[in-house]
Design a protein that fits this description.
4-stranded antiparallel β-sheet, 3 helices, elongated
């Protein structure tokens, strides 16, 4: 009986493949600056903690905020000017319509002198020019508002890019200190999503086709996990190996080396 058991055990080993993987966070992000600036806040006390809405680092945005406030006030004033000019334009249109009718009425009257007709004509042209001038001013105001709204969006984006927060992520590392001036693309921090875990293994070529059907054992314990994201292109570092991922529940401790067995069951 003992010989049979040993034989069956040895046969089961023939149908399993063992890999090793480090238990990693589900996602790790390296955060870089989209804009240059002076670091005015860097909270190292948040290292290793799950972040909330509050920023863990800030770049100086004082001038951006002041300019944004100025731009918003200008937009309000220009919108009032547009409203006033629209009313003026409406009144000028009514006046112009009446003057056009009056001029057409007296244009052919023989009882009106040429001087009177010329006076009416010049008054009509002056009103037309005033209408066109007001219309042009209205268009100019609208262009200014469009430009200011774009500037407002740029400033809002700049202010947002100078504040670094990541609710739900853990602050893994913080690369800047208060008083430093950071250029564009400089590294600010590294954050991690530890709500789940991830194991990355590199399959042998013969395991790729049937890997998804395998039962996965972690450190000798059967799991319900499946292989995901099997890349059908050989890895550039691990020659003739094919990367695959296993998404797991969040472990208590990350970075532990896990034995991964792929068994036929």
């Amino acid at each position: 009986m003992r010989i049979i058991i040993l034989f069956l055990f040895s046969c089961s080993l023939l149908f399993s493949k063992i890999y090793y993987a480090k238990q990693e966070p589900y996602e790790v992000r390296e955060i870089a600056a989209n804009i240059s600036g002076l670091v005015i806040f860097s909270d190292e006390t948040k290292l290793g903690e799950q972040l909330q809405d509050a920023p863990y680092a800030l770049l100086d945005d004082e001038l951006d905020k002041k300019e944004l406030l100025s731009v918003e006030k200008k937009i309000i004033l220009l919108e009032k000017s547009i409203k006033n000019n629209e009313e003026i334009l409406e009144n000028l249109a009514k006046s112009l319509t009446k003057k056009q009718k009056n001029y057409k009425r007296i244009e052919k009257l023989t009882i009106k002198s040429t001087l009177e007709k010329d006076r009416e004509f010049h008054d009509l042209v002056a009103s037309q020019n005033q209408y066109l001038s007001t219309e042009k001013e209205l268009q100019s105001l609208e262009i200014q508002i469009t430009d200011l709204k774009l500037r407002s969006e740029v400033l809002e984006r700049s202010i947002k890019d100078k504040s670094f927060s990541a609710k739900g992520f853990v602050l893994y590392s913080l690369e800047v200190k208060k008083g430093e001036v950071v250029p564009v693309a400089s590294k600010i921090a590294k954050i991690a999503d530890i709500s789940r875990g991830k194991l990355v293994i590199y399959l042998d070529a013969e395991d790729v086709d049937c890997a998804e059907k395998k039962t996965i054992y972690l450190d000798g314990v059967k799991s319900s996990y499946k292989l995901l994201h099997i890349i059908p292109i050989a890895d550039g570092v691990n020659i003739s190996k094919y990367m695959a991922q296993i998404i797991t529940d969040a472990p208590k401790v990350f970075s532990k080396l896990i034995k991964v067995e792929l068994r036929d069951e």
